[in-house]
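Try this one yourself first.
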């Protein structure tokens, strides 16, 4: 068990040991801690060793010179130059927010980046400024295009966020697979099974063995619909930004042949562009849904992001639990 402040300091120090500046180390540590607090440990400390391994092999540049190209008052392109994804995405969303504040809408593409953790973390930054945000990012091959038996698209999450409901954010953040790849990796690491029907082994058979699932194919949510959405994200975040796409994004855990070259796309705009009463109306919208008759056993209909927000608030002043394996990795990284 670790106190939040203690763990934040430990992770920051690990990044500093790997030649990160204080600001970049803090940003990276905060994104990792946030994943633990919202109940998504698959994107938290369990990934720290992977980031450090890639830094050591010079596949992540801790001193990257990140360039922002202004295309118009609303549009910018960020070249992350193989920075860690946390820092690149932080710059990208802040630039999109800045553009939106000036013109009403901000569109920012990010190229030459890496895995940035949970999209909801960056969406929240826009919501805090009373802005609506959408973001896309591609990922290493995991999902087979519908009708194919070989994975090509990543789990390719999409996220939408709206300021609403007494400062409790409405955030829909979802991968295009039935289960996110991080959960499968954690299950493989801890020797646990995964749910039935979310992945196939390399022979095309349904498997609950996490390691076999990583060697095989993840199943998209909604069959061809999920596959189609994963393709759309590959185009928006990969093709559009000039990043890797079509199965070319490198797996951060297994492929050390070069940088990931992931692409992100952030779209941020003022919530009151068309409706000056947006905040009041979205709260009415949420209340209407919450008042609907409930199924047996359901005590409350929750909106997207509500559970994560409640977990975050509940965990904020609690110690953070790490599995023995992850805690051991953390301590080894601290001693290196």
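Now uncover the answer:
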């Amino acid at each position: 068990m670790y106190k939040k402040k203690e763990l934040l300091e430990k992770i920051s120090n690990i990044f500093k040991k790997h030649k990160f500046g204080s600001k970049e180390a803090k940003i990276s540590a905060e994104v990792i801690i946030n994943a633990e607090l919202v109940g998504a440990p698959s994107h938290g400390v369990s990934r720290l060793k992977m980031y450090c391994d890639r830094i050591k092999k010079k596949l992540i540049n801790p001193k990257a010179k990140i360039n922002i190209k202004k295309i118009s008052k609303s549009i910018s392109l960020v070249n992350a130059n193989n920075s860690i994804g946390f820092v690149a995405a932080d710059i990208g969303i802040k630039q999109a927010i800045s553009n939106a504040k000036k013109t009403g809408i901000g569109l920012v593409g990010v190229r030459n980046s890496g895995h940035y953790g949970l999209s909801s973390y960056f969406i929240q930054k826009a919501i805090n400024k009373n802005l609506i945000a959408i973001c896309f990012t591609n990922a290493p091959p995991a999902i087979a295009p519908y009708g194919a038996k070989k994975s090509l698209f990543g789990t390719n999450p999409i996220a939408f966020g709206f300021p609403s409901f007494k400062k409790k954010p409405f955030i829909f953040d979802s991968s295009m697979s039935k289960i996110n790849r991080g959960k499968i990796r954690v299950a493989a690491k801890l020797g646990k099974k995964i749910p039935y029907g979310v992945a196939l082994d390399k022979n095309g058979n349904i498997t609950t063995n996490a390691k076999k699932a990583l060697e095989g194919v993840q199943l998209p949510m909604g069959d061809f619909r999920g596959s189609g959405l994963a393709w759309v994200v590959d185009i928006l975040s990969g093709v559009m930004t000039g990043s890797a796409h079509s199965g070319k994004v490198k797996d951060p855990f297994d492929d050390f042949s070069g940088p990931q070259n992931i692409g992100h796309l952030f779209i941020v705009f003022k919530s009151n562009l068309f409706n000056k009463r947006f905040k009041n109306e979205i709260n009415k919208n949420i209340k209407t849904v919450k008042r609907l008759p409930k199924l047996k056993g359901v005590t409350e209909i929750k909106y997207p992001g509500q559970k994560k927000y409640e977990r975050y608030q509940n965990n904020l002043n609690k110690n953070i639990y790490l599995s023995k394996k992850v805690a051991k990795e953390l301590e080894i990284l601290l001693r290196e």
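Discussion: The chain has a mean pLDDT of 95. Residues 27 and 89 are 10 Å apart (CA to CA).
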